[in-house]
Amino acid sequence: MADLNGSTVVAASETIKSHLALGLDFDNREVALDRALALREWFGVAKVGHELYAAAGPSIVAELRDIGYEVFLDAKLHDIPNTVRSAARVLAGYGLAYLNFHTSGGRAMLEAGIEGALDGAQRAGHRAPKLLGVTVLTSDSNVSAFDERLDLAAVAGCDGVVCSALEVATVKARHPKLVTMVPGIRLAGSDTNDQARVATPYDAIRNGADVLVIVRTVHHAADPCAAAEQVFREVTAALD
Known about the structure:
The chain is an alpha/beta fold.
């Protein structure tokens, strides 16, 4: 019975971690991997953005997967359709869990990117990543384009969208099958920095967010491990 209970606890913990993406916004591969190892107890997804990808290259994806993370490549692809198709084909071949595109690039671009990503993952023998449309950046207070971009992501065939916690309810009402990847997460009392639309981990999950992207809330804390544990506890409470 003890083993069974232990397995249940581990499974529950992994489920909670699947809702948490650790943003590794560092310009140094070693620093990023050290932080990823230190916080693995509380996060199941690692977000690789432009900064880390430029510093470490494609190999960072495999290194994070070896640690046990799923990888969200925050590429925000935006170019002519053919270029996005080709780039997505290459990137999805690295074994990603999530890849994103700017919805402002239009339907043809999104469809080309989705086509390329699915082809690249299949050729490499990987599971297809969840393909996300970036709606309105959380640093922007003007969300007038949100509804149009949300509907565009859905009609183009995206699996989900990147949005703030404040728009999650709209996503779930209009397109309930779309996954929501939600940045702009702050613990109560934390500095909002350059983010215009923020929410606590608890409130974001209660609003229906699927995956929270956690960056400065943890990395700028005096004790990153303690901050990560607090985020984890809030998500646990919200899911309960």
